[in-house]
Design goal:
This protein is mainly beta and 306 residues long. The protein contains 5 helices and 18 strands. Strands 4, 5, 6, 9, 10, 11, 12, 13, 16 and 18 form a 10-stranded mixed sheet that branches. Strands 7-1-15-17 form a 4-stranded mixed sheet, with no helix packed on it. The longest helix has 10 residues. This is Lipoprotein.
């Protein structure tokens, strides 16, 4: 079988070679020599600069006009596992890593002396940290302690502004997942190719826009914040528990009246076939953000709640 690079566009091939260590011969059998896989985690530019955010010539922004920035976007990742469908093992880690995506991409672990071939089964978990977690890029001890106490796998702090109104949010999310059989977003195939003397980057790419989606089961969902802002009535600090006061069947705006778009149509959040713990905005956000971890950009995993 020909190399995966043969079928890539010139732009994609250049990206793969410069960022992900190139495409080896995609034979599924071992070649001569050995290479390295570096696993990193990233929230892309959105976790760093917030929204609106320009990505690949497209502006990602809120449908209802909010500007949202983050001061922290901490994720806890563990159980990194790479092997083949025919039973060969590359690595199976037991460590848990904590990284603040607001600080940019962070390398979690590097595995060397791996056989040259496609390793087609990659799995990982998004799960709460323990006291033994590896603090990858200077997460504040107070935040790590809060995640351990609350059994949170995400810790997110940020601010939102529209029309002169400003709000802050500080959320711990408890929605751990097993992410299995992940597709590589670079070549659209399962797992990673190790090349001789090469370094292959396997990036767990967190799509932070999922946190604000208004529909599930589609990457074409819109981001909205009106319903989130309206969940707090007494101050400008939005707690995650307050999202539980917003019923998905009767979403309210800042003025307490039914939430509508600019055309006067009622805003609806669509969960599709995704089961929710309750018919509230809090449950919707937990379900949506549970699927935000991808691989090398758009690569999808089979996601199962833990």
């Amino acid at each position: 079988m020909k190399s995966a690079c043969t079928f890539a566009s010139a732009a994609l091939a250049a990206l793969a070679l410069s960022v992900f260590g190139g495409c080896g011969e995609d034979t599924g059998t071992e070649g001569s020599g050995s290479g390295t896989v570096a696993i990193q985690v990233s929230g892309e530019g959105a976790a760093v600069v917030g929204y609106p955010y320009d990505k690949n010539g497209h502006r990602l922004s809120f449908a209802d006009g909010w500007r949202v920035t983050f001061s922290k976007f901490i994720v806890s990742v563990g159980a990194l596992h790479l092997h083949t469908s025919d039973g060969k093992e590359a690595f199976k880690g037991s460590e848990t890593y904590v990284a603040d995506l607001h600080k940019g991409p962070a390398v979690l672990a590097t595995y060397r002396e791996l056989a040259v071939r496609r390793w087609d089964r990659f799995h990982f978990r998004i799960l709460p940290p323990t006291g033994a977690a590896v603090n990858v890029n200077g997460v504040a001890q107070a935040d790590l302690d809060a995640m351990i106490r609350g059994k949170y796998n995400y810790w997110i702090e940020g601010a939102a502004e529209k029309g002169g109104k400003s709000y802050s949010f500080r959320w711990g999310l408890r929605n751990p997942t097993q992410n299995s059989n992940c597709t590589n977003g670079v070549d659209g195939k399962d797992g990673f190719v190790v090349t001789n003397n090469g370094v292959t980057t396997g990036e767990i790419t967190v799509h932070v826009d999922h946190l604000f989606w208004d529909s599930l089961g589609s990457e074409l969902s819109s981001m909205r914040f009106d319903a989130i802002a309206a969940a707090t009535r007494d101050d400008t600090d939005i707690t995650f528990d307050e999202l539980g006061s917003q019923s998905l069947t009767d979403l309210r705006g800042l003025d307490g009246t039914p939430l509508k778009d600019d055309a006067g149509k009622a805003i609806r959040y669509n969960a599709g076939s995704v089961p929710l713990a309750s018919s509230t905005l809090a449950s919707f956000v937990l379900a949506s953000s549970a699927s935000q971890a991808h691989v090398n950009g758009l690569g999808l995993c089979t996601v199962k709640s833990l």
